[in-house]
Amino acid sequence: MEPILTDAFAHFSDKEMSNRYKKVREKMKENNLDVLLIHGSQAIGNSPGQVNLTYLTGYAAVMETFLVVPYEGEPTMCLAVPFHIRNARDFSYVKDIRDGWSLGAAIERIKELKLEKGRIGLVGPGGSSGAGITLYLENYQTVTSMLPDAQFENATNWFDELRLHKSEEELAYLRKSARMNDLIMEDVINYARPGLTNRDLRRSVDVMAARHGLTYPFAHISAINMLDPEDCYPEFYPSTRIISDRSIVMTEFVFGYGNYWNKIWGSFFIGEPTDEYVRMFEMASKIYNETVSGLKPGMTGHDVNKFLEPIPAAGYEQTAFFLVSGWSTMVTRPYMGTLPNNISHFAAKGDLDYKLTPGLALTVNVWIRIPETNKGLWIGASGAMTENGFEVFNKFPVDQIRIAGK
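Structure (tokenized):
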């Protein structure tokens, strides 16, 4: 019988899901935990988000969801709306699904398992790698008061880390997502022209995403006048600002399937680019290509920083973010590749000794500008580390100057 599918969640084989539970329970044993209480509460864009919970369930409720995973025995998912139970059973790998007061139902399940005096690992919704977020304060106070004899441990960070190395099935979704981002980039370049608004561009992208059943946590797109730029960062919420000739359009597209999103950072032009923007684009392309071809397993944050050395030497600065960072279900470790004047520099200090290993899903982003101006741009694409280097999933040529309508 064919599985019932949806656009909201990616679908994986029973073998894939079994391997996930095996890895999770190995870590539970390593940390001497009897049960995990996983909290899902974070919707992202048009996706249910809740990335740690969906990793084991293939489903998340529209409001908060709780998952109880005992070291031995079947997991239990708890959600609030009884009318959603049938829909959840269509998609979830979890068979025991309960409704009502979802947190209370999860606590009662822990008591049913006779683990109310056990060691309970708390796992948060994900999407904030390294932050160690578990439960809201009020939820935590409820859990500790209703399970006064239990011991609690923050298990979010090791759970986040567990998801970083992607399986072949996960990589297949990321490659498929990249093909869609490539298509959307080409489509918007063909559509963009003077006289439209930034909101028009965004709506055209939204239509493409909906047509192909894509989810996304966010997406950036807007045009910036090269002759008098108001910023070097595209509008997060696109406005009715009218697009002029001699503009640069900056995009950050994050489309994919379920919570498996490819990211592509594009800069293209409406009208001929100015000489300043051509030189910046050429510098960004140089850094991008040298990084993509130069990344190897075993490299650390110290090694990645070296790819950035031509930027200040050419009189530019790195605006923000990381040259190399983890990406698939929002930003994850590693955080690598920052210059000292980059506002994200502090976050990369912790991963200077982190080693790149096969299976890590990454994005490479070069974002530069002319110091003390709003003249800047970015380019980048996503892929994964392999035994031999970095495999870029996107085929769209982010390193080539493209002019809309040509």
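The chain has a mean pLDDT of 96. The chain has two domains: 14-162, 168-392.
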